[in-house]
Amino acid sequence: MLIRRPYISGIGLLLAVMASSPALSTGATQQQLADSTCSVLRSAAAATPGQGPMLLPSYPNLQPGSVRALENVAFVYDNALAGIALTACGDTAQAKRIADALLIAASHDPTFKDGRLRNAYRSGAVAGDKVELPGYWESKGNYWSQDPYQVGTATGNAAWASLLLLTVYDSSHDRRYLDGAVAQLHWIQAHTLGTAPAAYEGGLFGYDNAQRPQHWKATEHNLDVYAAATWAGRETGDAALTQQAKVAGDFVKSMWDPTQHRFFVGTLDDGKTLSRDKSGLDAQVWPLLAFDSHPADWNQVWSWIDSQHRSGDGYGYRRQPDGVWTEGTAQVAAGLQASGKPVPDPLWQVLAAQRSASGMLYATPQPRIATDFAIGPTSTYADFFYYHQPHLGATAWTALAAKGWNPLAGRPIGHAEQAP
Q1: What local confidence, expressed as pLDDT, does residue 203 receive?
Q2: Which residues pair with 205 in a beta bridge?
Q3: What is the residue range of 158's domain?
Q4: 313 in a domain, yes or no?
Q5: Using CA atoms, how far apart are residues 232 and 211, in angstroms rounded to an integer?
Q6: 26-43: average pLDDT
Q7: Number of domains the chain is built from
Q8: What is the pLDDT of residue 139?
Q9: Residue 112 domain-assigned (yes or no)
């Protein structure tokens, strides 16, 4: 049965629940993290000139030349997280600026006219109706260099953009944001739906003249689609969105392994064969945030998380991790809250210890950690790493966890849907 929420904005709901529920009282470290991460996100947004649309750099304090492909790059996923976190922090105006930039980017792509969002754009204030794609001039060879992943479109990133737009719609009641969120879900439906099993594939990779579809199906991407389509379907009453949520949600449910009590990360490139060896921390935690109700045995995933992903008092991305993944450790803190479990103070302390001189949190305290995944089909090895760099995504996830906010549902963690 479809249950609708009362007509109350997410941020208003957060304030009301925090005021009335002693169970949401926070410890000192958690409260300090909430204050510090909200403060640095507000400062980063306010530092972008003007009051108009803007995107924040994902790695704002890179040493020049250190990782050139990341300089002045605003990943859509990181910015969606930052906008949702700013909403949880009470700054809906800055969240709206990010959402406005994504609406412009989707409707004014330099090549494609199908409403897609790229994985990344150039950070900064948006001038006019043009959101620049990332890239730089390579003097050795005299050519404009772009990253084939950054200019592609991953299904999960488009779904996270939809979640931000829904969050801003919830606080503003401006129909443009709901329409924008639905448009991204329609793009996903039209361009990434795969069969046998039915689920949403990885998206498109590559330069504009040679984009190729990614046929693997990720548990994480389908979680994102499930969450966004469920929310958008509830707001619009559109049966097609409800069906889209069912397709994605059924795939996620099928990825549960009842013998090992964990989620498979998805399929291999053929879109059918299960990827059994790898494990991604996000694919284990996010189902507890995305689904209002789920099978009781999903709660047993915590034994897998602790045995396979723990790194000291924090958690790493891959199985038997080579270090702490700050973003994922914050996701664990959020997932524990959603499961009604206490978050150990040492976990909050691990997150607090990642604070850089700028206030942004490091992606990892290690020089580099591995994920066991490749960036794209042109990679010759598992080249997707996180580095010891201040990171917008890590900071935003920590703010969300510390504020007790569920970005996949648009409400305080643990606050179940209530019928009006």
Answers
A1: 98
A2: 212
A3: 10-50+154-412
A4: yes
A5: 28
A6: 96
A7: 1
A8: 84
A9: no
